[in-house]
User: Which sequence fits this backbone?
């Protein structure tokens, strides 16, 4: 069972890495870019036996306790069975 | 129009950051974890006027030229109109 977690900075938090990527893309001639945000993408490979509701609870817990800095970041996740 | 790009290390490439996260989760008592891979999640905010096929071509180009190291990383993307 795989859990895919998408973490990005909250919209009100400045993203210098995104700004740098945006500048790089413009230098390469890509003009249609308004904004770039760079975040993290985490794939967890979990034991198959865990019931879906329990897995969901566990992943939320992992995000809040370790993976996400909830002061400046927001997250979503998706579990494929 | 938003393009969401998901970048991760190829399966055969060692992921020390993923190993560290996996160790951290185990230390916190999460036992059901088999593997963790840490990648990047990039959200591009693009001009609305670009036709979907053209946007797709541009994002692919951006990935190959700047955003992804295709030697060790693989990517997928999704464009929301």
Assistant:
């Amino acid at each position: 069972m795989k859990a895919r977690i998408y973490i990005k900075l909250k919209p009100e938090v400045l993203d210098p890495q995104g700004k740098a990527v945006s500048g790089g893309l413009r230098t390469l001639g890509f003009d249609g870019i308004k904004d770039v945000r760079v975040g993290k993408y985490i794939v967890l490979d979990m034991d198959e036996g865990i019931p879906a509701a329990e897995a969901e609870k566990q992943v939320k817990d992992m995000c809040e306790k370790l993976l996400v800095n909830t002061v400046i970041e927001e997250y979503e996740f998706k579990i494929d069975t």
